[in-house]
Amino acid sequence: MKKRNWHHPPEKLTLLNNEIHLWRADLDLSKVLIKKLAHSLSEDEITRAHRFRFQEHCDRFIAGRGILRQLLANYLQIPSDRVVFEYSDRGKPHLASSLNLNNLQFNISHSQNLALYAFTNQRIIGADLEYIKDNVDHCQLAKRFFTNQELQLINNSKAEKQKTIFFQLWTAKEAFLKATGDGLAGLALDAVEFTLNQNGNLSLVTIKKTHHTRPHWLIDNFIPQDNFVATIAVKNNLNISNSIATKFFEFHLSS
Q1: Separation between Cα atoms, residue 123 and residue 21, nearest integer Å
Q2: Which of 20, 71, 206, 239 has the fewest CB atoms within 10 Å, i.e. the most exposed one?
Q3: Confidence tier at 238 by pLDDT (50, 70, 90)
Q4: Is the pLDDT assigned to residue 197 strictly greater than 60?
Q5: All CATH 3.90.470.20 domain ranges in the chain, comma separated
């Protein structure tokens, strides 16, 4: 698992069919920028934001949704307040069909103050980002949610690596279930099983209780920032190309 380098995006943003675009963004923004982003949100998004008990969480929600709208607006070449979302039965957001002529797919994840945005054309994609918490009892969680083989993988690893491996597996499972739209309410975490290859990266082993098949999935886990782990899961059964290029961009919003 490697740490990625994040770059400034080009002035003209183009997402090719054989590309994945990943964006990293800091959600702890100034009050001026939060207010600016709030203007692009819909009424229901503003309502959701104000349901948070603490102002910090309210501001981070506004930042997360406002940045998503800004990124989608750049890809669609429309104003950010014209971005319209529809939702699946399990609450997964996607672009309104009237806007999505190129079948632009996206997924978002955030932990603490960091957000990860993933975009593709025509391929379903899931992303999960987790902060490596010191107070997490990864052994008990692994016993409860992981397969016996995954639990053995953690237990057989060096003590100093066990927590990181736990978060690798956790983010991979979440990313896959988010991509398929099942989420944690749909399938149990042990419905999909991973192992580590010789390079220390995850490989998908089995998928249970679902029509998705293993060879059609690209799983990439990486370090987006110190003390964080992230994984993306992309369904790759298109005939346009066997190779997918991933580009890493840093999001900056000027006042």
Answers
A1: 12
A2: 239
A3: low
A4: yes
A5: 21-122, 129-235
Instruction: Using alpha carbons, list the distances in angstroms from residue 242 to 17, 19, 197, 234, 237.
Output: 11, 11, 20, 13, 9
Ramachandran angles phi, psi of 48, nearest 5°: -60, -40
SS3 70: helix
Three-state secondary-structure class, residue 185: helix
CATH of domain 21-122: 3.90.470.20
Find tokens 């709208």 and name the residue: 69
Q: What is the pLDDT of residue 210?
A: 54
The tokens describing 64, both together, are: 């997360």
The dihedral sign for the CA sequence 238, 239, 243, 249:
negative
CATH for the stretch 129-235: 3.90.470.20
Instruction: With cut-offs at 50, 70 and 90, classify the pLDDT of residue 185.
Output: low
Phi/psi at 119 (nearest 5 deg)? -135, 140
CA distance linking residue 239 with residue 62, whole number of Å: 38
